[in-house]
Amino acid sequence: MLVPLTEVFIFVGPPNHSPWNARTPHLAFSFFYACSYCRAGQEWRQEMPSVLIVENNDFFRHSFKEILKMYIPSLSVDESVDGSDALTIIGQTSPDMVFMDIRLPGRNGLELTREIKGHNPNLVISIFTSYDHPEYRKIAEKCGADHFLLKGALTGSEIAAMVKAVIEKKKGSDRRPNRKNRNLHKRSFHKLACSS
Questions:
Q1: 28/30 Cα distance (integer angstroms)
Q2: Cα-based distances in Å from 146 to 3, 93, 143, 151
Q3: Hey, which residues does 128 pair with through a beta bridge?
Q4: Average of pLDDT values for 125-136?
Q5: Does the global pTM surpass 0.70?
Q6: Across the beta sheet with 147-150, what order do the strands follow?
Q7: Average of pLDDT values for 77-105?
Q8: Which residues neighbour 114 within 8 Å (Cβ) at sequence distance 6 or greater?
Q9: Strand bridging mode 76-80 / 147-150
Q10: What is the pLDDT of residues 176-195, one digit of tens each?
Q11: Nearest 5 degrees, angle CA 73-CA 75-CA 77?
Q12: I need a surface site. Which of 57, 78, 79, 91 has the fewest CB within 10 A?
């Protein structure tokens, strides 16, 4: 758990503006350690393998998340119920993979996939739907989706194996852009989210 810096300041600061006593070096070290711990926690969260589930059915979304966590305990799983929220999360977390439902509030998952791929073509997006219509498959392919999956067609272990394969493939390359490109990436998604 990250340490709130406000609490650290309260602990470190001398009461009533009085001169610091002999414990000052120890308190200063505690403050330094707390700051380092906060930064390390943030960096650790960014380096965790992660996926995003974009699905407006609460029961299915939560169940799917539990299945992923059961097979891959180290996986960070974010959830979104609509396109605008999904764009915000992608801009903040840069997930390794996105599971995208087709029927969503506002824009549908196919349109959202096309927009996301336009800004981040290397992000793996799997359309995850109950509707096995040939036209959906064709549109999904044109929009740049990497997979077209039917809900209930794959077992939990098969989905977990697919997620692991995506993560392993990215391990051999620099999955995080440099600071300049990461900032550009976040700004582009910010503009996309604001325009939605």
A1: 5
A2: 40, 20, 9, 16
A3: 149
A4: 94
A5: no
A6: 76-80, 50-54, 97-100, 124-129, 147-150
A7: 95
A8: 142, 143, 144
A9: unpaired
A10: 555 444 444 444 444 444 44
A11: 120
A12: 57
